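Predict structure. Chain length: 248.
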Amino acid sequence: MAPALELTNLTKRFGDKAAVDDLSLVLEPGAFLGLLGRNGAGKSTTLKMVTGLLRPTSGSIKVLGLDLETHGLEVKRQIGVMPEDMALLEFLTGPQYLRFVGRMYGLEEAVIDARQQELFDKLDLAPAPKTVAADYSFGMKKKLALCAALIHGPKVVFLDEPFEGIDPVTSRTIKEILASLQARGVTLVLTSHILEIVERLCPLIAILDEGRLKDFGTMEDLRRGGGSLESIFVDLVGGARKGELSWL
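Prediction complete.
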């Protein structure tokens, strides 16, 4: 069986700046990867490249054995994406937006409506019937973006900061959904600055710093010297700034 995701010497440059620098890693089907890094480390740029939103400067991307450069449409039919900025059509209502997304994936309207209702029930998303997404709260927009990423039953799902702005109850529901997806063989890639969530959820961890892969493996692999994920992460990316503020 082909890897779910295979990155080979992936690089993205913006002028003289390498946002992602010679990144290589392989994920087998059913893997759950937590992609970590400081702000500006290259996480979102990597996700944009592997989902076809941004063309690499060099290197290759294969998803489910398909080269993204030559089989982009076929790849996009099989992946789900929850971008950090959510990218919703905000002047549609939630159900209208999911119907649009479902149609883009070729789903029948009865299937779209049934899945939309099930997703809304699961995530406790119940906006007023005529309320457009622009008037949703930040958390409701996050829920809607997750619904759009899952409605077509993707084989690989990319989630950029899915827990940001989410209440504890919904956070637990999302964790249950992700665990269920992984149990069914769906491959998951998640970015988050909430290291405790990543440590509990993700069997695999990749840590980026200044666009380069600093470490990649299971939590057991990363804990070679012991310590929490937070301590491992801080040590790998250069440590926290010490000292007090002069006026406090």
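Summary: The beta strands are 5-14, 17-27, 32-37, 58-63, 66-67, 79-82, 156-160, 187-191, 204-209, 212-218.
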